[in-house]
Amino acid sequence: MDVAAVAQLDRVLGYEPRGRGFNSCQPHHPIRGLVEELGPFYFLDPFIKIPYSWVMSVSAPISSISVDSKPPVAVWTQIDASNAKVALNGAVNVYSLGGVWTQIQASQKAWLKQSSNQTLTFDASQVSFFDGAGVAFLIDVEEAQQKAGGKFDLVGLDPRYQPLLNEFDPINNLFPVPAVKPKRSFVVSTGMAAENLINDTKGLVSFTGQLSADLFWSLRNPGQVRWGDFVNTAVEAGIAALPIVGLVSFLIGVILSFQAAIGMAQFGAVSFVGPLAALGIVREMGPLITAILLAGRSSAAFAAEIGTMTVNSEVDALVSGGLSPMRFLVVPRVLAGILVAPILTLFADIVSVVASMLTMLIYGIPFINFYNGMLAAVDVEDILSGLIKATLFGVVVSAMGCLRGMQTGTGAAAVGISATRAVVSSIVMIVVVDGIFAFISYKTGF
Q1: pLDDT in tens, 181-193
Q2: Domain boundaries along the sequence of the chain
Q3: How far apart are CA 446 and CA 437, in angstroms?
């Protein structure tokens, strides 16, 4: 039919076009279908003006005729208080389940309140098509039935739809029963802990041997060491750590002096607080505090960096390319730890001693008295002892961070676990090394 003729008839019938084009010239009433079949009506325009009331009276019976007379895709039938049935027919998809789903839900909820141990049967013998929406509908009804303690039976489903249903395994996969972890006995827990300790010790011994060999290799072949990574790591672990090391060392010096002065004041020996604090700082507190801060900063950073490379298979790529991960990743970081640990310890010693000196001014001890007492109590051997201890701490901290990074597993939490293990292992090894060094110092007097 000509577009202009349709538009002309629309104006005659009292309709307004909704835009431009053929599809926009659609009247808002079912009588349009009748008009489009009658051909052009230019000749009727001067003679006929159809009243709007007549159009409505004609179109109302037409609109009252149901276009879709198909039965609903799911019919609820309550047999008795304990048994009900849902009969499926035709194509069970997202279009046919639009208004039926909520009706079945409402009927099921009302029926489940009547009694207990009820059985709902789904009859799918008349289903001609079944898709994911049908599976979701089935899961929803079955889950509600089982939550109420009832039974659910599916009968008559065509075998060709069974694989689709098995993919979802409605209740077991989407609504799994929480698994209860079996409780381990004390003997089993102790055995597993001992096994983990033995395996960890074996890994530590193997890593220590391989690292020692590669460190000797770096001394024989200094040109093959990756000095660029060494410098970057030294800057990150050393220069970047100066503010936090200085802050903590200053507070340690203040606290140590205050606590020692409180006890010494009872014996009138406040003047000995300065030499005592200085000796404790250079021999023990300076290296120990620096090592703990390195464990929290650098060891965790090493574990996170190498752990991320392990998770991303970059370490495996190095091995595939014929490169040693120990020489490529571990040796530069350990060498950087050996360098920065004594330097940071010396910086911490100076800051702590200055803080102690400032604190003793409160008790009336001038700088010159503090300085003279410190020179009398602290020897060069004491300073060297602290620096040697700090060097060992640097090796331990950097090595443990690299070891935990190399041991990183798979998964999103693996890197975080490795960083945590690196910090804990580093602190434990610091205490062990400190105890061994203290025993050696007691026996040798160094």
Answers
A1: 778 888 988 999 9
A2: 3-63, 74-174, 193-444
A3: 10
